[in-house]
Amino acid sequence: MNNRQVGEIFDAMADMLDIQGAGYHRVRAYRRAAENVAALGQPLQEIWSRGELESIPGIGATLAAKIDELMRTGQLEAYQQLRAQIPEGVVAMLQITGIGPKTAARLWKELGLESIEALERAAEAGRVRDLSGLGPKTEQNILAGIDALKRRTGRTRMGDAWPLARDMLAALRETKGVRQAAPAGSLRRMRETIGDLDLLVASSDPESVMSRFRQLPQVEEVLLSGPTKTSIRTHQGFQVDLRVLEPARWGTALVYFTGSKAHNIRLRGLALDRGLSLSEYALKREDGSEILCGTEAEVYETLGLPFIPPELREDRGEVEAALAGSLPDLVKLRDLRGDLQFHTTRSDGHHTLLEMAESAQAYGLEYALVTDHSHGLGVTGGLTVSDLQEQQAEIAAVNRQLGGGFRLLAGVEVEVRGNGSLDLPDEALAGLDLVVAAVHSGLRQSRDQLTTRMVAAIENPHVDIIAHPTGRLIGEREPGDLELEAVFAAAAATGTALEVNAHPARLDLKDVHVRRAIEMGVGLVISSDAHAAGDFQLLEFGVATAQRGWAAAGDILNTRPLESLLDWADRGPAGHTQRHR
Ligand code: DGT
Ligand code: CA
Ligand code: CA
Ligand code: ZN
Fold it and tell me: Is the CB of 257 under 6 A from ligand 1?
């Protein structure tokens, strides 16, 4: 037990005693002991072995006995007891700005909330304002506090990092002397979550760039600033690293700082085979002379490789494929001709069918499938059979209004019930262009149950696409416990497509699952799951995820022209053909 560990235990005990409503003095004693132990200039262990614990300020007989117990046994009975009495999630609530021990205790005891996740759901549902003394304002503050905490403690979703990176890069590009400005790191590789944001600039005037960067409106605090690197923290709590270099070294630097580390190590190995050393600055010959590369393509060419797209740079076989000349021809955003999942005000969307259709068309799509939720989900306005019929008339009207060049398709996001059946009758589904099925509740079923349920939905002849197959919400909810190999096998056998949901909170299927699904012969679609008119832009995150899964345009069904897509829906293998009979 070192000083820090003992300090952390006392601190945790102070938190828990506070939540329990222990008296001020008792809580304060643990808090002070934690501080004093942490501030000691020598190991607690040594003071203990000399029997001098009580010489430490704030440590009396009671606390000395506790430290003694920790030193002897590595455990503390009083601490274990507290932990058994108070859920960990309630203690965790104290990390949320604005929530103190009293509030945490009330949220737990009066509303039964035992985790930050449960608190977030309750606040979103407007249940927290019912506690006397708290109101809608406090509820909003709690939600904002939870958002801030997620950014502080964990990795950031790619969808939250990108807009910030774009704004900052746009400002830097306007600065004097700037030749190049680009994202690097995991951001450029389009990983689903980002640790810190890395930006790279090539400029003849580094000092102007750094000075501009430090003064950007997004900056809360400058963490460090030097001639080649500056790190800041934004108001939202993101760390951003900016590096500035000479334009002639742009290619090598961009390769190096894009990473991944594992990919870089492979490149360095290839360089060594050619008698070169590769650093962030340049490729160097054995005689010390440098080969400067202004572009990434030159770096790869010097190593005997074709250009490798950033999305593949994870050392997952891309170097071997590049050497063998078998890199995939990745699907591009412009390959997508349509979107196969969006919502309107009939379920939980924010815009009408017409508004959504106009936006999809303006975004450049040729077709879009409206997929409001079925009523079983309990989403406000979820569709019943008659709602669905009403919507079909509306679809026809919108199609007439928008004219040629764009086609709105009739669909639904039908709920897969706990037993694998669908919550709309066959006749209702048979009249639609395409049927998307999804699991939204009961994701905590056992592996067997959930897999059987999913396979039943896949084998249902009415179902064309399974939406967000694992149900995960990045940073919030774990994926359902699915036997994915069985799911992929069933999807391949029935010709049912699986979705790559583009929403940055979902990205589901995720990159490695995309790759495995393709290997197993599963057809995929990339869908925006748009809930508002501006959300069609999210498709880029879905495409990036598919690219990270090595998908080519041919693997993605909504790259097909409409007629060919509808042919697929009608003429799939066995079970599938029954739909339109
Ligand atoms: P992140 O921030 O955790 O989402 O992941 P990255 O990939 O952005 O990693 P980061 O920010 O630590 O570094 C950015 C890039 O810089 C990384 O992808 C590769 C390169 N890099 C950083 N440290 C090393 C290193 O020790 N060795 C090598 N070869 N490359 C490194
Ligand atoms: Ca990074
Ligand atoms: Ca970094
Ligand atoms: Zn859904």
Answer: yes
Distance of CA 220 to the CA centre of its chain: 24
Does the C-beta of 259 come closer than 6 Å to ligand 1? yes
Question: What is the reported pLDDT for 576?
Answer: 46
CB atoms under 10 Å from CB of 217, counted, come to 9
The response to whether residue 196 sits with its C-beta less than 6 Å from ligand 1 reads yes
* Architecture of the structural domain at 337-571: Alpha-Beta Barrel (3.20)
DSSP 478: P
Residue nearest to atom 14 of ligand 1 (CA): 185
The domain 156-245 is classified under which CATH number: 3.40.50.740, 3.30.460.10, 1.10.260.40, 3.30.70.20? 3.30.460.10
Q: In the prediction, which pLDDT does 575 show?
A: 41
CATH code at 251-324: 3.30.210.10
Measured distance between the N- and C-terminal CA atoms of the chain, rounded to whole angstroms: 72
Whether residue 237 has its Cβ less than 6 Å from ligand 1: no
For residue 508, which ligand has an atom nearest its CA?
Answer: 4
Q: Is the CB of 58 under 6 A from ligand 1?
A: no
What's the confidence (pLDDT) of residue 579? 42
Which residue minimizes the CA distance to atom 31 of ligand 1? 261
* Amino acid letter, residue 571: R
Q: What is the pLDDT of residues 78-103, one digit of tens each?
A: 999 999 999 988 998 998 888 989 99
Q: Is the CB of 355 under 6 A from ligand 1?
A: no
* Separation CA 288–CA 277 (nearest Å): 9
Say what the pLDDT of residue 263 is: 98
Residues with CB under 5 A from ligand 2 (ion): 185-186, 195-196, 198
Q: Which atom of ligand 1 is nearest to the CA of 193?
A: 4
Q: What is the pLDDT of residue 249?
A: 96
Per-domain residue ranges for the chain?
A: 3-151, 156-245, 251-324, 337-571
Check if 185 has its Cβ closer than 6 Å to any atom of ligand 1: yes
The answer to whether the beta carbons of residues 313 and 297 sit under 8 Å apart is: no
Cα(162) to centroid(ligand 2), Å: 12
pTM attached to this predicted model: 0.77
Supply the pLDDT for residue 578: 44
Q: Which residues of the chain register pLDDT less than 70?
A: 151-153, 377-381, 571-581
CATH superfamily of 3-151: DNA polymerase beta, N-terminal domain-like (1.10.150.110)
Which atom, in ligand 1's list, is nearest to the CA of 263?
A: 29
Yes or no: say if 40 and 10 are a contact pair by the CB < 8 Å rule: no
- 480-522 confidence digits (pLDDT tens): 999 999 999 999 999 999 999 999 999 999 999 999 999 999 9
Mutate to test the pocket of ligand 1, among 151, 156, 186, 315 (most ligand atoms within 8 A of CB): 186
CA of 267 to the centre of ligand 2 (A): 19
Concatenate the DSSP letters of all residues of 333-387 into one string. Answer: GGG--EEEEE--TTTT-SS-HHHHHHHHHHTT-SEEEE-PBBGGG--TT-B-HHH
